[in-house]
Amino acid sequence: MAWRCLQNLSILRHSEALVVDPISGYNAISGIPKLGACERTDLRVQYSQYTGRKVLFFLVLMLAIAFLAGVAVTLGSAEISILDIYSSILAEFFPAHFHSTAFTDMIVWDLRLHRVLMSIMAGMGLGAAGAVMQGILKNPLASPFTLGISSAASFGAALAIILGAGIVAGSWLVIGNAFIFALLSAFAVYGLAKYKGISSETMILAGIATMYLFSALTSLLQYSGKSEQVHEVVFWMMGSLGRSSWENVGMVVTILVICLPCLIIKSWDLNALGAGDETAQSLGVNVERTRVIYLMLSSLITASIICFTGTIGFIDLVSPHITRMAIGGDHRFLLPGSALVGALLLLAADTAARTILAPVILPVGIMTAFLGVPFFVYLFMKRKKEFW
Fold this sequence. Notes:
Mean pLDDT: 83
Number of domains: 1
Structural class: mainly alpha
Number of helices: 15
CATH class: Mainly Alpha
CATH superfamily: ABC transporter involved in vitamin B12 uptake, BtuC
Radius of gyration: 23 Å
Order of helices and strands: HHHHHHHHHHHHHHH
CATH topology: ABC transporter involved in vitamin B12 uptake, BtuC
Strand content: under 5%
Number of strands: 0
């Protein structure tokens, strides 16, 4: 019995994706029986520490995002202190207690704040979508872009820019095309995978085929387009937050408010999928339906972001890895953690893009690679054990 107790404590310490009752100590996957009062007390303490580290990690990230957002809004040709920035924001909600000037309000609310909020929202969505894709595909290199969503959105944008063709007219032509084709890519992957049976392998193969198809079509359009049109397509594919507006931010926030809670609520299913399809099925998880639901939700999040920002890579790939290295692979914490890490990374990348060659603003997609790759390699080299 003592050996069984030690075995249970070891499993709880080293595997954070197992389903463990913090009160009774019963493990729903391994079937280890209940423990005595002393062992249950130890498990309560360990579980409190287990969750406490995650909560502390989230608090640190939120404070860092709030501070960096204030710094980012101060950047620009008009010099405004960070205290004036926060006073302007708080005065909008608490006018009786905080005051601001009309000039500061114009700079903050009309020119800078919506860009900063778009970077935060886009980073949150891409980070969470990347964690979901890596979970359902059980592949550390998986991301929404692996399934061809980015290539399809780029083709939709190129179609609108070069040929002027699309379903939505006017100023929404490029945005509408990118959004629709990104979703079409997700449905194409689902259709191809459904034909051979929905599994991680078939979804990855279908995604790669879709990605190369839309990449070839985009190259064909670029070859036939004028130099100005090709330049605009290339700039769109680099990713930029300069096209943000309060209307765009509102749409992205609406999608995130709808989709992210659905992903987090069903995060136990992702934990079960991590133990294998057979184990997940034995625990009552409908594996195919779960993969399809997560595929569509993460695709919707990604499409709603990149149609406004263009292609922003690496955030969806590196954010889940950084979070997994910091707090483990339990998707109850991994999904919100990846969202916060993604928000911080994209906000930092956009801030750097606006300051390095000021007043020239670099495309944020370039900066995400410059900032993310060295950091990711550093974490990878410092890691002593498996993290996947």
